[in-house]
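Standup notes
- DV: blocked on the single-chain target, sequence here:
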Amino acid sequence: MSAVLENLARIIARPRPGGVPSHLQHGYTLVELAIVAALVAVFTAAALPDLRPSQYAKLDLATVQVAQAIRFARNEAIRTGNPIYVEIDWNTDRLLIAEADLSGATATPGATLSHPIDRKQLDYILSAAATTSGVEITGDPFDYPLGGTQPSVVFDGQGLPFRKAGGSYQLMTRGEINLALGDVQRTVFVAPMTGRVTIQ
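- DV (later): unblocked, structure below
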């Protein structure tokens, strides 16, 4: 065994090309350093998230906010048994959730509802908020058989979407809230027969 160790010690101590014994050399070659630097760069790029601000995150946030607000309106109508009014105005990018006043020939907004957690009124303009700036609502979102496309809907105590116009009640036939930021769009759907809210 000692003979093997002696031969190994002689091999290690043998001078390398260039005349310097290997036990006196310190450091790494340029090729070794370049390989390590490349590996570190690849692993760092793969491990770090994209830190650039994403404009599309604003669109996703606005879409979720609109869907949650409409879900809240529907759930509040079911919980209280009172009709809740939702208005989405594409001219001003305004979203309003309020008690529905059905005393006249058409449904109108009554007292504005507040968010159940932060107590802020559910009346805001999407394009003006810092977290959703630049997001636009495109077109009137709610269709009715006799009234065409309208910016508002009312949820009844069972969560069904309808409108009151000219003294008559009409169930909604289509509910699509289209939000856009640049050339990218997201859609919040309100199901005609159930009022169920989904995002696509």
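- Follow-up: Residues 55-80 form the longest helix (26 residues).
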